[in-house]
Specification:
With about 250 residues, the protein is an alpha/beta fold. It contains four helices and 25 strands. It has a single domain, classed as Hexapeptide repeat proteins (UDP N-Acetylglucosamine Acyltransferase, domain 1, 3 Solenoid). The relative contact order is 0.08.
């Protein structure tokens, strides 16, 4: 089993060599020491679920203390889940709706970077496992979306993801060894996901590792994208294919 922050959440929780507090710190905070633990616990406990305008004001004042960088006029909704916040950078005028997840766990240099004027919808999760997620200015990530990165997810400016989109970079496992459970076999990567500027993904679109969506592309609802799509395409289907040029 892997040691350290690079292991998955399940592997860390199953690690019998660590106590409960050490597991908690590794999963949620990612930094040793009493001060990071005290700061995280105080801010999250007091303000995360506080309703109404008072909650919005107090989160605006105190949540930035957790992150690596926070811009101006950021709105933090209720019941957010935040992990490894010191690896998260947030631009100006960003809005996080209720129940969003920002999870930058991992021991490497990856993390989450969010540009200016970005909206993150309700119940949406941005999750890193040693990877990184970068979202460009003016992009809108809809409700119930999931962006999961073991390598790289890069979203350009003016990108719109409708509800329930699913992007997974990495997450493929080898399975040649029958004697070793698949979850413990090496992860495989095809280079991550790149969504260039001005792309629109319809509701419930799935994008797999190794895909580049060219600038100005539109992908129809419920499509599965498992190969690159050239710029200014209209594509849909399972798997998605280019049906015409914009």
């Amino acid at each position: 089993m892997k040691e350290g922050f690079e292991a998955s959440a399940q592997k860390q929780l199953l690690d019998e060599k660590r106590g409960s507090l050490a597991k908690y710190v590794a999963l949620f905070i990612g930094r040793p020491g009493l001060w990071p633990l005290f700061l995280y616990e105080t801010v999250v406990t007091l303000f995360t679920s506080l309703p109404g305008g008072l909650g919005l004001v107090l989160r605006k004042l105190f949540f930035p203390r957790l992150f690596k960088r926070t811009g101006k006029r950021v709105v933090f909704g209720r019941n957010m889940t935040i992990r490894h916040p010191w690896k998260i950078e947030i631009g100006d005028n960003v809005v996080f709706d209720d129940n969003t997840v920002l999870d930058a766990k991992g021991s490497g240099t990856g993390g989450i970077w969010i540009g200016n004027n970005v909206f993150i919808g309700r119940n949406t999760s941005l999750v890193c496992k040693e990877g990184e997620i970068r979202i460009g200015d003016y992009s809108n990530i809809g409700t119930d979306c999931a962006l999961l990165s073991e390598t790289k997810i890069e979203i350009g400016r003016y990108v719109f993801l409708a509800g329930r989109c699913y992007l997974v970079a990495g997450g493929n496992h080898g399975f040649k060894d029958r004697e070793t459970p698949i979850m413990f076999q090496p992860s495989l990567s095809k280079g991550g996901i790149t969504v260039e500027e001005d792309v629109w993904l319809g509701a419930s679109v799935t994008v797999l590792d190794g895909v580049v969506l060219g600038k100005g592309t539109v992908v129809g609802a419920a499509s599965l994208v498992n190969r690159p799509i050239p710029p200014y395409s209209i594509a849909y289907g399972v798997p998605a294919r280019r049906v015409q040029e914009r």
